Amino acid sequence: MVISTSGSEAYITELFNGISKIDSDVTKEKGGSGKYFRPHDLIESGYASCLNITTRMVLDSMNLSYDGVTVKVELDRSNEEKTIFKYQIDISGSIDKETREEVLKRVANCPVKKTLSKQLEFINDCNII
Fold first, then answer.
1. 21 — alpha (psi -120 to 50), left (phi > 0) or beta?
2. Is 107 within 8 Å of 51 (Cβ atoms)?
3. Distances (CA, A) of 54 to 6, 49, 73, 115
4. pLDDT mean over 35-47
5. Between 86 and which of 7, 34, 74, 99 could a Cys-Cys bridge form, CB atoms 3.0 to 4.6 Å apart?
6. How far is CA 4 from its chain centroid?
7. What burial letters (b/e) apply to 89-126, b meaning 16+ CB within 10 Å?
8. What 8-state DSSP symbol labels residue 37?
9. What 3-state class would DSSP assign to 49?
10. pLDDT tens, 52-100?
11. Phi and psi of 97, rounded to 5°?
C-alpha cells in the first residue's frame, strides 16, 4: 500500500510505502513546482523499473554476464481509445543478437505489464487498513 499526503507547497505530495518516501508534483503550467515526478511519470517508472529488474533476473538465470541494463519508457496518451507504453531495453555487455532477442522475449511479460494488462477496476474502499 502507498499513502499519499499533501505537502506544504501547492500540489507537492509525499508518497510513503511503509519503507521509503518520495515526492510527487505537477508541472508549473498546472500550478505545481515541477520539481518532482508527475503522477504519469510514476506510472512510467513502475513499468520501467519492472522491465529493468526482470531483464537482470532473466540475464542472471541464464548465467549471462552483462555490464548494465538501461530501460526507457514513454507513456503515450494521445489516443483517446487506448494507452500506449513505448519502451526500449538496452543491455550493455557482450551479448550476441540471438541471445539478446531471447532475453527480451522472456522479459516482455514482466509482472507490471501483466498487472496493467488486466481489466482495471477502481473502488473507493473506506476499510483500507
1. beta
2. yes
3. 33, 8, 14, 14
4. 97
5. 74
6. 18
7. bebeeebeeeebeebeebbeebebbeeeeeeeeeeeee
8. B
9. helix
10. 999 999 999 999 999 999 999 999 999 999 999 999 999 999 999 999 9
11. -60, -45
Residue 68's identity, in one-letter code, is: G
Rounded CA gap, 73 and 37, in Å? 14
Contact 52, 69 (CB under 8 A): yes
H or E segment to which residue 84 belongs: strand 84-92
Entry pTM: 0.92
Cα–Cα distances in angstroms (integers) from residue 25 to residues 16, 35, 41, 67, in the given order? 14, 7, 10, 33
Q: Between β-strands 3-6 and 13-16, what pairing exists: parallel, antiparallel or unpaired?
A: antiparallel
Instruction: Look up residue 88 and give its three cell numbers.
Output: 526500449
pLDDT of residue 112: 98
Length of the chain: 129
